[in-house]
Write a structure and sequence with these properties.
161 residues; Aminopeptidase; seven-stranded mixed beta sheet; alpha+beta; 9 strands; 27% helix; two-stranded antiparallel ribbon
């Protein structure tokens, strides 16, 4: 597995990855509407062409905001490697922190990020209702029966810039 900047990959391959995993390259969160296929990011690539993980991000006001992180092979260190690459990039850009938003139902993400130094700093009740007005395909219920309603902001300070 190699970690490569997404800009080095075929756009069609990146578009297909987002369509397969999110329904489209469009991500709607309280900070905005993003076309993940157009953002900076890194991909974990197997056999030269198969994307097995992908992270996208942008810089806003001296902070790096992660917009998406996906790994299609669990417990192999792919998500961790992509997150480390993004954090390294953020340090190189002189960012003070890395931030992200996830939804209340995403218990896997909450565990993953908190184990890596991220802290929940804000909760936005019913924020997903607003996102559904823009992207109606956002489900109302997670596969394990948790209503998807709220967004949580997690932040990791990058003190060793």
């Amino acid at each position: 597995m190699n970690i490569v900047p997404t800009k080095q990959l075929d756009r069609a391959l990146v578009n297909q990855f987002f369509t397969d995993h999110w329904g489209s390259p469009e991500m709607v969160v309280s900070t905005g509407v993003y076309h993940c296929n157009e953002l900076d990011g890194f991909a974990a690539v197997e056999n030269g062409q198969r994307i097995v993980g992908l992270i996208t991000f942008l810089i806003r006001e001296n902070e790096c905001e992660i917009i998406s992180l996906d790994s299609i092979v669990e417990n192999q260190g792919i998500g961790s490697a992509l997150l480390r690459a993004a954090e390294t990039w953020a340090r190189q850009q002189r960012c003070a922190a890395v931030r992200l938003i996830t939804t209340n139902d995403n218990l896997h993400a909450l565990r993953f990020y908190q184990k890596r130094g991220y802290q929940i700093v804000n909760v936005f009740p019913n924020a997903v209702d607003k996102a559904r007005q823009i992207k109606p395909s956002i489900p109302f219920m997670s596969p394990d029966g948790i209503p998807i309603r709220d967004e949580l902001l997690l932040v990791k300070r990058l003190d060793d810039r």
